[in-house]
Design goal:
single chain; 3 domains; alpha/beta; three-stranded mixed beta sheet
Length: about 300
């Protein structure tokens, strides 16, 4: 009997909260509606950073970028790079090999750091790659830029066509320079993190500068994957005062040279045709000097053997 009485009592209380038709009272419906609306608004506010949709997504992505791991916990490798930089071109096959070898263990993020004072085509190449990203072809476009080294406007548009992109959309994106702010954001981030040249890598947050050999980069990756501690950086010593510069007088009238005879700066290179380092300088560094300084009359370059 006690059990039956308890059930009836409960049923009586429930019935008093309903109308004659058995539906919930309007007041209860109203509070439920308010609760649902408030819950939805709260979720939207969190996701969009106070309903600033663009800013909210950007902030979320920025917070993810600052992590030393990928979205699934992989080791994060970031490269600040320049499509016109010869050292970045040298690092390109090394990075590609490492990404193939460590597939599933690392996440790679390419970030733009165009050195426009040295590489006048780097900025537009970076913007073009972001236009390709809009159509899901950033990786293919990135590879094509490094492999062809063709970065003039006509070539950038031809790359898009060759890769099967919608050329009308790509050209509109590129011509409007709508991706300049994206490239600038990467550049600003690099500057804030102490990047001064390219390529600069951050492997699990550890800074590695320059086109390092495969074994060097592999060693850093392996150390982070194994959980070993990062080496303690050597504390910088006080810089020594430079010694007094010594001036030399040299006749260069009969030596082969490039550039204006009235240039304020003269560079004399003593070189060796069989020297591998001289060959590297000729193919990787001299073209930039030629384009930005010799051709503009700022420097005269003299060759001696």
């Amino acid at each position: 009997m006690a059990k039956n009485t308890k059930k009836k009592s409960t049923a009586s209380r429930r019935s008093s909260a309903k109308g004659a038709s058995g539906k919930a009272a309007p007041k209860d419906d109203m509070w439920k509606t308010y609760a649902i609306v408030l819950g939805v608004l709260l979720v939207l506010s969190v996701l969009t950073n106070g309903f600033g949709l663009g800013n909210g997504v950007g902030s979320l992505l920025n917070s993810l970028k600052k992590s030393n791991t990928g979205s699934n916990g992989e080791l994060l490798i970031e490269e600040f790079s320049d499509f016109e930089c010869p050292f970045c071109q040298r690092a390109y096959p090394t990075v590609k090999q490492l990404l193939d070898e460590y597939e599933g263990q690392v996440t790679f993020v390419y970030k733009h750091f165009p050195l426009s004072s040295l590489h006048p085509l780097a900025q537009q190449a970076a913007e073009a790659s972001e236009c390709a990203r809009d159509q899901g072809k950033f990786e293919e476009y990135h590879d094509r830029l490094f492999e062809t080294k063709a970065l003039d406007t006509a070539s950038l548009k031809k790359h898009a066509a060759d890769l099967g992109l919608n050329t009308a959309k790509f050209n509109d994106c590129y011509d409007s320079k709508e991706k300049a702010s994206v490239v600038q954001a990467d550049y600003n981030e690099g500057t804030s993190r102490g990047v001064t040249g390219t390529p600069t890598f951050f492997i699990g947050g550890e800074k590695v500068v320059g086109a390092q050999p495969y074994d060097n980069l592999k060693a850093v990756i392996d150390r982070h994957l194994s959980g070993e501690a990062q080496p303690t950086p050597v504390q910088p010593t006080q810089p020594t005062q430079p010694t007094q510069a010594t001036e030399y007088t040299s006749s260069i009238d009969d030596d082969p040279s490039k550039g204006s005879a009235s240039a304020k700066v003269v560079i004399i290179e003593w070189s060796d045709f069989q020297c591998p380092y001289c060959s590297r300088f000729y193919s990787e560094t001299l073209p930039s000097i030629q384009q930005n300084y010799i051709s503009t009359g700022k420097i005269r370059f003299v060759y001696r053997d």
